[in-house]
Amino acid sequence: TFAKRGSGTMTLTGAGSSTLANVTGGVTLGNGGGIIRVEAQGVLGTNTGTVSKNNSETPAGANTFVEFATTGSASFSNSFNFSSATALEAGGTGHIRNTSGSNTLSGTLTLTATGGNGINLESAGTAAGDLLSVGAVAMGASPTGIRILSLGGAGNGAVTGVITAGATGTHKVVKPGAGKRPLNGADPVTS
Q1: Nearest 5 degrees, angle CA 183-CA 184-CA 186?
Q2: What is residue 75's three-state secondary structure?
Q3: Is the pTM of this model over 0.85?
Q4: 100-131, pLDDT tens digit by residue?
Q5: Residue 1 pLDDT more than 90?
Q6: Buried b vs exposed e over 7-39: b needs ≥16 C-beta within 10 Å?
Q7: Taking the mean position of all CA atoms in its chain, how far away is CA 78?
Q8: How far apart are CA 39 and CA 99, in angstroms?
């Protein structure tokens, strides 16, 4: 198990020891844990990532996220679990930000927190080829509040899998920002 702590940026290039491919048991980026910058395919190994954002940062969670910044195209089969986030349209920031490259996350993205939390995905790259495509998204039940999947940023992207809402509560998908975000799953939203 690997947990990043502190406010700095950890850059994973795949060169030398700059990789988490040999870690087992998962990778955790906790409240105020800074940034994990992914620059090459395979540097996360087969680990499940957990990202918990700290809403006391200004703006909310501003310095806690996983950044994908590759050259060209890269695919990642990792699943991610998320908690504690202010939605993008309410001034929050991304759990995952794509700043360069055409990157695909094929693992399931799961919201584990209750209440008004959500999953924030930002495609911030401005080059023509910059996009972030994700697979299945599981929003979970919401006994109170609203669960929000925010697909933001100026860059493009897609959700290629099914977005699964929980059995209770209110769920919504929002798209702040100029980028295009088609929902390409065979049955895009289920509950």
Answers
A1: 120
A2: strand
A3: yes
A4: 999 999 999 888 765 557 888 888 877 766 78
A5: no
A6: eeebebeeeeeebbeeeeebbbbbbbbbbbbbb
A7: 11
A8: 10
